[in-house]
Amino acid sequence: MKVLKFGGTSVGSVDAILKVKEILQNASANDQVIVVVSAFGGTTDALLKSGEMAAAEDESYKDVLAQITQRHLDAAKQLLPVQQQSSCLSLVKKLCNETEDICKGIFLLGELTDRSKDKLLSYGELLSSQIIASAFSASGLDCRWKDSRELIVTDSKHGNATVDFDITNKRIGAYFTGKFPLTILPGFIARDKREVTTTLGRGGSDFTAAIIAGALNADSLEIWTDVSGMMTADPRWVANARVIPSISYQEAMELSHFGAKVIYPPTIQPVMDKNIPVWIKNTFDHKANGTVITVPGNNGGNIVRGISGINNIALLSLEGSGMVGVPGFAKRLFEALSVSGINVILITQGSSEHSICVGVDAREVFYARKVADDAFAAEIVLKKVDPVVVETGLAIVALVGENMKSHPGISGKMFGVLGRNGVNVRAIAQGSSERNISAVIAEKDVKKAINVLHEEFFETVRKQINLFIAGTGNVGKKLLYQLEKQTDFLLDHINLQVRVMGIANSKNYFVSEEGIDFGKWKQLLDGSGKSGIRNFAEEIIGLNLRNSVFVDVTASETVAGVYEHLLRKSISVVACNKIACSSAYPVYKKLKEVAKEFNASFLFETNVGAGLPVIGTLNDLLRSGDAIHRIEAVLSGTLNFVFNNYDGTKTFSEVVRQAQLEGYTEPDPRLDLSGTDVMRKIMILAREAGEVLEMEDITCHAFLPESCMNGSVEDFYNEMAKHENHFRKMYEEAAEKNCKLKFTASYEYCSSGGKGKASVGLKHIDARHDFYHLYGKDNVVLFYTERYNEQPLVVKGAGAGADVTASGVFADIIRAAKM
Fold it and tell me: Which of 19, 478, 578, 681 is catalytic?
């Protein structure tokens, strides 16, 4: 014998009911079947609305009831042959007239009592079950209808009545004897011992089916709904949520209690005691396997079975030194809340006994605070206990798994991944069974939290990273091209899904929670109508996506100004822009500290050497225990390109313009030629090596005439042309010595404990020097360290160009994704 329950969506339309009929024809062919049905989808809410409108003396409740009546009449007409409609339509009209009478009484009294509400809401299931039973009988199924109120007996509590199982089991056993036809019953409704209609609470149709299955020792209970089983997480929040094939009764109860709405929590108890398997199946995909809820067994390799969450939670905190070592405080608190009908969802208490924290429904929190304050009024007056503190806007996320208790490190992984994504945990609860680890977090963080937890525990094959890119110039365009080209490779080879969620330039920005198509970003950006980098940053924070990375490929001080704000929200920053790290030392230090404090990455490899692994190599040396003695470097791909290509056949001005056209210079080439850019780079390296260094501490041997630094960029080119003799003389002096001109940078650590020295400037480099054979736009960095004290560690390669710079930014993005 089987008991099948069909929810509101499964009987929400004529087409859905016909699918139910198909399922029942197959099921009843080989077995005795009892069917419990819910009200047509949305009917219970509509009935409740009509009652509330009537209580508010709003006569438009009649319109709502008219819509309910018409919906059920239409369903009966579509499901039944014309010649068999009469009796069913009469019954529907009779039941609907009764709802009008109830609402009229509510209207006249101006009051909707719990008893009236239960009576009114019961009609949803009465209507749906009667129509379905009539339709199935008319189609040839051997089918009968039975009123659940004659079988299920409760106490007198309305809205969520408690079942008297002794009486109920006897009645069910007496009714279902021998061979009986397919039986259809309304779910959700019951009667108390005074024969007054009560209800079993929202989800009570599940409970009805479980009560009957338990009383009859059914072979199985099937809950038919609109999803193919219990899921690892809510699919509305987690796109990659998947069906759990098998789950224990205890795990199912934990998940349903913490927000998994596929099954009503009390449903499990009547069947668990008798080991009756419960199947969660999809009415609209009846061939799908679904989920079976049964005794603990094989977990399919997953230690964590599911992740769930509850919104609208508030915390009540009772604290005070007078609580320490005094028995009975917890009892008094919970007793006061219980007597007032306030359900406690979560409890935590520190071992110091200085505080007790409980989670309650946010709608009850201020009443709960009053109840608690009243209970401890004397202690509060004597200042032994502080007045109860309330925190709202919270939620609970929970990891559930039968086998978590035998695997250490689960809670560490849970809180680690939440911390890395800026999700602050306000309270933690874990029972001794270790079947559930619950954390109270801000409600705005729930979606992100459940996604990162699902990614950590269920998606070991794939991680998603969400990018927000500021800057669409040469480097920005190249980066977008590289990202598009490598999307499939990253997914296939390192299981990384990279999505661009936002793009900004100096005029506009565009953000999309669905991700931006690489082929449409320019069109979307140009037509966005939104502007301002700070507004862009606020939208990034507002989206609150997991694994978010802000990528700055500008040279803007304004853009650099939002780094700290983003890092404080645990949004990683990848910066091609050198301004932040070459600002005053306290700014640089603050950004590094904030990134560390809020578990975010702050990566800026391309600040020095474009795509070369210069900063990464330096950090590896220091992390492995080496010590930097000296750094010598050619750090300007622009200047190296210029002096490698300037031989007097073209003017110096023409060579510089060529460098700019090929994308090697900053937007204003004077930043390169003045030595300012190189000063920034050597300062960043010195700072990464541990030196407290400012720009004014660096000696700069400039080679540009002072007049070249005035006016616009075009004025700069004109002025350089006037000073061609100056540049030619520099070249000829070097050539006479068989030397090359190289603009170099150096830093030397002061072993005596003083400040290290740094300088930049143009030098004559002879053929014996490591810098001599440096061609095109190449950079080179020589690290002289405690380990590399005679022969330096050399990092050499292209140090300028949009392609290599974009690739360096790309590499930092991958590093951020792996942290």
Answer: 681
